[in-house]
Amino acid sequence: MEKISISKAQSLQHSEELITGSEVLLRGLLKEGVECVFGYPGGNVLYIYDAMVNNPEFKHVLTRHEQGAIHAADGYARSTGKVGVCIATSGPGATNLVTGIATAYMDSVPLVIITGNVPTTVMGMDAFQEADIMSITMSITKHSYLVRDVHDLPRIIHEAFYIANTGRKGPVLIDIPKDVSNYKMLYQPTTDINLRGYNPYPSINRMEIDRLIQAIAAAEKPIIIAGGGVVYSNASNELLEFVELTKIPVTSTLLGLGGFLSGHDLWLGMLGHHGTYTANMAIQQADLIISMGSRFDDRVTMKVDGFAPCAKQIVHIDIDPAEIGKNIKANIACIGDIKDVLKYANTKAVPSQSNRWIDTIQENKTKHPLRYKDSESKLKPQFVIEMIHETTGGEAIITTDVGQHQMWVAQFYKFNHPRSLITSGGLGTMGFGFPSAIGAQIGNPDRLVISVNGDGGMQMCAQEMAICAIHQIPVKIVVINNQVLGMVKQQQEIVYDKRYSQIDLAGSPNFVKLAEAYGIKGFRASNKAEAAHIWQEALKIPGPVLVEFVIPKEENVYPMVLAGTTLDQMIMGNFD
Predict the structure, then answer these.
(1) Cross-strand partners of 114
(2) pLDDT of the residue at 28
(3) For residues 408 and 382, is the Cβ–Cβ distance under 8 A?
(4) Active-site option among 17, 59, 123, 129
């Protein structure tokens, strides 16, 4: 038997401490580099919150609702590329996170969600505030853990972060029963991860990429669809190099905005349901479609049977093999991280035969720009977004809620950098915009963060203004107020023959007074002159500000492609 020296024994004694599961959790989070946790306490996480008292390094932001906590963690993750973390108690606390978990899952956002649960001794007995959160969220998490043994907790923490932030990213749930959070164990830090069968970084198939290069060389009308995967894989520079080498125009999905420089001559704008004329027509006329990190969702393709009818080949580049061929059949499948695929592709890239094609596209951009009917007496939302863009130079982080204002931002704000648009794409979650801005601002303290909201979505998480006021988080809160559920109204007007039902928001609060009630300066504008002056004033204020822009309720988003029609069947709007 090996004799242990006194010095070695002392070393072992110092490396192993008898601490509770709650302290293990906090140390594990700090070891993972977590800068901030967003949460809301309750009975079954009180041991965890008690452990925070003796951990001054641990930063926690107390939101005013669990949904605010998870959306803030989501905004932090999207804007930084790091894992967002939130915590809630069992039962209603955990179930209040469900919408935010689904939001992150649909958009492949890396989150670690920590929930408390009832003690293991009463699990399954319908104890007070008991809910089987693992079963509830099974279809909207990348992976889940129920921690029954405190000794598993150090490993689980590091596995959760690794799973959340590798491969196709997504939310991971750690459910910790109350007694487990108080059990003590001899703690030894660990970073060992051994997940059998989990291969988040598949090796790229160079033969498939070579086929892509051959297809480009033969293409006369190629187009790239840049999706959210370009942003998540940090492949913006590689994409720019690829475009310069191949001379292929680029259109972006909603989540892909910012992944390719909006000011580039070969950028066509967003495609799809509210996409530009140039982008949608290019898709319908292209002979080669190259999708990068886009899953061909229904808001991009619209009527699948009529999508890209002239395409001789469709290329799908994605890290998730399950997406290949799921919605649109791919002739060439390049599975792998987009950054890795493009790095190899750029070593062999050749120009496409696209000169005449580019001329046609530039002509379409000139003849069919995004338009709206401006007014001196009424404040148009498109003008507001253009004004915000001009005053920020495209350098701000913009978060949006969901609705017409979201589409106006996508159309009229030109993003210079990736991770600058924070928005709910796949799930379309109202209430997301404002709390996600809080997370984005905490993650990017030196950048201007602007939260653009409708008057409907703003009321779903308005209580989080307390956080901005207390901590002086300098988010500029924009409310586009038309006193109506705008996107629903537009659908009812066009599709349901103006049979308007349950869309009137006229009883909403005075947003300026609401902001002031929380201790935040508020402004209101209802014409262009007021808007320009007030917005400049808002930008000068160092702390949080709310600016309400009152717009006409009849304003709609155009172009628009109706469900069941093809991308070239656009409703352009009457601007004469």
Answers:
(1) 87, 174
(2) 96
(3) yes
(4) 129
- Strands 288-292 and 397-400, bridge-based pairing: unpaired
pTM greater than 0.85 (yes/no): yes
**Residue segments in the chain with a per-residue pLDDT below the cut of 50:** 1-14
Q: Which of 286, 140, 136 is nearest to 215 (CA)?
A: 286
The reply to whether 128 belongs to the active site is yes
Asked, as a colleague might, if the bond just before 559 is cis with ω within 30 of 0, I would say yes
Q: Are strands 288-292 and 313-318 parallel, antiparallel or unpaired?
A: parallel
CA distance 225 to 241: 15
Q: Which residues, including other chains, have CB under 8 Å from residue 399's CB and lie 6 or more apart? A: 75, 421, 422, 423, 432, 433, 434, 436, 437, 440, 449, 450, 451, 452
- Nearest one of 498, 504, 513 to 546, comparing CA atoms: 513
463 is catalytic: no
* pLDDT digits 0-9 by tens, 482-508: 999 999 999 999 999 999 999 999 999
Alpha carbons within 13 A on the beta-carbon side of 524 = 12
Any catalytic annotation for residue 348? no
What is the structure's pLDDT at 3? 36
State the pLDDT at residue 15. 57
Q: Is 215 exposed, middle or buried (0-12, 13-18, 19+ CB in 10 A)?
A: buried
Calculate the alpha carbon distances from 357 to 263, 266, 285, 361, 417 in Å.
19, 11, 10, 6, 27
- Three-state SS for 424-471 is CCCCCCCCCHHHHHHHHHHHCCCCCEEEEEECCHHHHCHHHHHHHHHH
Q: Is 129 a catalytic residue?
A: yes
pLDDT of residue 12: 41
Tokens of 135: 């079963």
pLDDT, one tens digit per residue, over 91-127 is: 999 999 999 999 999 999 999 999 999 999 999 999 9
**What is d(CA 457, CA 97) in angstroms, rounded to the nearest whole number?**
17
Nearest to 202 by CA among 334, 114, 291: 334
User: Looking at 292, 487, 560, 570, which residue is catalytic?
Assistant: 487
Q: Is 138 helix (H, G, I), strand (E, B) or coil?
A: helix
How is residue 170 written in tokens? 């997504």
CB of 271 closer than 8 Å to CB of 295: no
Can you tell me the distance from the alpha carbon of 110 to that of 23, in angstroms, rounded to the nearest whole number?
Answer: 23
| Distance (Å, whole) CA 7 – CA 327 | 63
Catalytic residue among 16, 128, 472, 536: 128
Quick one: which of 468, 457, 450 has its CA closest to 516?
468
Q: At what angle do helices 528-540 and 381-392 cross, to 10 degrees?
A: 40
Catalytic residue among 142, 178, 489, 528: 178
- HSE (CB half, 13 Å, CA atoms) of 126? 0
Question: Which residue is catalytic, options 23, 32, 38, 66?
Answer: 66
Residue 558's closest CA among 153, 197, 229, 275? 275
- Annotated active-site residue 521? The verdict is no
Of 408, 425, 404, 433, nearest to 295 (Cα)? 425
CA distance 13 to 35: 29
